[in-house]
Amino acid sequence: MIRNLTLSLFVLITVLSYGQVAQPQIIPQPQEVKIGTGSFILDAKTAIVYKDKDIQQEVNYLLKSLRDKTSYVLASAYKHKESGRISLKINKKIKDSEYRIDATNKNIICEAGSPEGIFYAIQTLLQSIDSKDGIFFIPSMKINDSPRFAWRGLMLDDSRHFFGKEVVKQILDVMAYLKMNRFHMHLTDEPAWRIEIKKYPKLTEVGSTGTWDDKNAPKAFYTQEDIKEIVAYAAERHIMVIPEIDMPGHATAASRAYPEISGGGTGRWEGFTFHPAKETTYQFIDDVLSEIAELFPAPYIHIGGDEVHYGNQVWFTDPVIQSFIKENDLKDEVGMEHYFIRRVADIVSSKGKKIIGWDEMIASGVTPDKAVVMWWRHDKPAQLTLALDKGFDVIMTPRIPCYFDFVQDNIQKIGRRWGDGKYNTLETVYNFPGSIENLIKNNQKQIMGMQASTWTERIADTKRLYYMIFPRLAAISEDSWTNNEEKNYPIFVEKIRKFYQFLDMKGINYFNIFDINSTPEPWGPNKADVIAEG
Ligand code: ACM
Description:
It is elongated and about 80 Å long. The protein is an alpha/beta fold. A hairpin with a 2-residue loop joins strand 7 and strand 8. It has helices at about 1-10, 55-70, 115-130, 165-175, 200-205, 225-235, 250-255, 280-295, 320-325, 335-350, 380-390, 400, 425-430, 435-440, 460-470, 470-480, 490-505; strands spanning about 30-40, 45-50, 75, 85-90, 100-105, 105-110, 130, 135-145, 150-155, 180-185, 240-245, 260-265, 275, 300-305, 355-360, 370-375, 395, 445-455. The protein folds into two domains: about 20-145, 2-Layer Sandwich (Chitobiase, domain 2), CATH 3.30.379; about 150-534, TIM Barrel, CATH 3.20.20. Helix 1 runs parallel beside helix 17, helix 4 runs parallel beside helix 6 and helix 8 (about 280-295) packs across helix 10 (about 335-350). The structure holds acetamide. Acetamide binds near residues 306, 307, 358 and 376.
């Protein structure tokens, strides 16, 4: 308590001169910060010094970011004798994502074991820059920092509404600022298929028209060139891009393009599934995933696997499926679904990758050497513990509090709320995973990390997308990076002011927690006001 008060005071004290500084406002909070006296003055003569060619890209990123922030064109040199240096060094004794900063009034030394660690040191430095009377400075400080979790992610659903590569790049820029490192693209679902597959052109010619609101909306999808651009842009920011091709449910757009591999569905769920008992379906999936595996260097392909029972009614009467179930001793339609998941896990495994599946996948019989579980059903915590007991690695994205299509404040009219009225305030997001720590404490090593998931049924344009993601993404960043003992909500809230300055500079919209009426709730299509649902 006393410690928290002291820290709060640090944050609230403003800079009186650049010799007297407050705790720098860094999100995510570093694990260890010690403030010294005095500051390093950053000016046009400051040199960026480095030896290791492996970090050339990071040095360029730093130079560009400093130019954007201070308008100085800084010198970059391999060796430089003057003071006023920022040195970036690889030190192999430091482990992968960890970094250290030693900043004095003479120079700044950033050390890490890898370019990734150097990149995180750079993000911390950039966030530590303050200015007064036109002079830029960084406080004297020592920082020792490394992430709690390896997976610090965000999912974007581009099927319900499509946002495109320029929006994705802006999001990746903010993720980099927040030291987040996994971008999960939900590329296929009911309204549309959003990625070009050369072998099956109708997937985008036919399957990419429409959105959640308007089935006649014009074609919109990522070309393979767009994907390469996104993957490269993300890689420069040490972000892995993970594609999701949802199956055997949520396959409506694919069914529309290639009805011959559809397993049908009825009414609201028409065409919802792939046909699970035809060899041609598995050939199609193998071909599609070959192109996907080539395009995305990530060692994972997310294959969905959720909510199949919503739309598999036709499976109960389809004679091909029924005889397949009998011949292969699969017992019933659920057995059929599990067979499908195992087949696809083998296909993905043959390409040297693992599947990620939503938590329904746990029951399929797929083994942990081939699969990672994404826990999403917050009302089924037993799914999380079952996955851990079975030996799976797990990524956590429970609806409450990690789904960003849920409202973040009671004043919001549009967006999801859970049946019991729960929604995802900044504070509930921030309190994760502390709120479920008892479920994971005995299996920490299997918890890869967590992500925010942004479904877009009710997010039709970019302004609203950003309004729903920010500032909550900053909370996920700190949840996934910072140990519980170093987290502090009142301090975090103060730091959001600086985060908003960054978003303002980039022209990115957000929900303003300091003045909740100042940003009218943006909305694209006309929809009924309050949408409450499970
Ligand atoms: C999901 O929200 N259907 C994974």
